Amino acid sequence: MAAPPLGRLVLTHVLVALFGMGSWAAINGIWVELPVVVKDLPEGWSLPSYLSVLVALGNLGLLVVTLWRRLAPGRGERAPIQVVQALSVVGMALLAPLWPHVAAVAGQEHSVAFLALSFVLALACCASNVTFLPFLSRLPPYFLRSFFLGQGLSALLPCVLALVQGVGRLECPPTPTNGTPGPPIDFPERFPASTFFGVLSALLVVSAAAFQGLLVLLPSPPSVPTGGPGPALQVGAPGVEEEEEASPLQESPSKAAGTTRSPEPAAHRLLSTRGVCLLGLLAVTNALTNGVLPAVQSYSCLPYGRPAYHLAVVLGSAANPLACFLAMGVLCRSLAGLGSLSLLGMLFGAYLMALAVLSPCPPLVGTSAGVVLVVVSWVLCLGVFSYVKVASSSLLHGGGQQSLLAAGVAIQVGSLLGAVAMFPPTSIYHVFRSGKDCVDPCGP
């Protein structure tokens, strides 16, 4: 006997969120665990630069997915998604015991296992945006917000786990009479990196199991035409949300009432001014949140102290799922409104970039007001951009599978361009300068 409509609706929302949680959990987890692994790996603090390059190379996953679509047209997203999830689970499970292993390359020791498995995980994460999102065209638009909520959890949960682990805990010794402070006292982590990666492997297994649960709830084949709602869409109250968001990509939404979408009109809607602007918003916001701003987060926060940095990271990650909750209740469908929100987010981003440029002596350093301003700016910046991403993707849902595929490509291309743009100033020209723990570079 089928589950009650409300129970089926809630279960589908939960499964979609858990499914989205597995999209970037692996790479996000590696990033937050870097302060632990750099202590034992030969690359030291040059490891983040290696990881940035590997994540950029992970965009080869886009080419692999494109090749799959050419060689197996109409086969749907099930097989690519299962391959992506298998790579994530196996890669993270192998990373747990193998990450400290090093090998000699060209006469120098390198963390070959860590770098190779990080590249495999980067391939899987980059491919997830262009496989997971098109699969969601089989569901009504409001489930897309649950998916992005899960993506927010893929950043938040590793951060919380790292805080529980005690990453980056240190204490500054008292300043002696001669005025020369001693080295900071580092506290050991509560559990090793292998345990951290093992927990992430379990989260990825849960995400893969959630996808299998969705396949059970949505028995229709993935090759169902993307324009019309098949039986798999009837997971909630029919005719309510679907009618409300029938064709948000059209210039005149009222014309969509009572019409059956077909692939050709969907393509026209995607290439309309509204569709192109929504894709542009997705590319720009992801370039900022996944490429530009993360590259300067430590420079903008650490001058105010490690507590400010950890608060900015954790609360900023929490702003993503909170923005998804907000989009579930209040969805902005106005292109002008989304553009205004993007400009607001850019204002916060400009302030944070200015703090990074002025590091290690930004304004209000050493004051409570400076800490509050930098943390609140990070939370509001990431929250506003997260809302714009969710709203834009929800509106693109009206164009069917091809629109969601284009959304995934825009997200990934924007992220890549943002990361590439920040590589020269951070790793080559060293525009940004960082301070030292327990040393006040701004004193008299």
From TrEMBL:
The keyword Transmembrane helix appears for this protein: yes
Catalytic activity of the protein: riboflavin(in) = riboflavin(out)
Leader sequence residues: none
Recorded topology in the membrane: Multi-pass membrane protein
Residue stretches of biased makeup (Polar residues): 249-262
GO CC aspect terms: plasma membrane
Entry function: Plasma membrane transporter mediating the uptake by cells of the water soluble vitamin B2/riboflavin that plays a key role in biochemical oxidation-reduction reactions of the carbohydrate, lipid, and amino acid metabolism.
Protein name: Riboflavin transporter
Biological classification of the source: Eukaryota, Metazoa, Chordata, Craniata, Vertebrata
UniProt gene name: SLC52A2
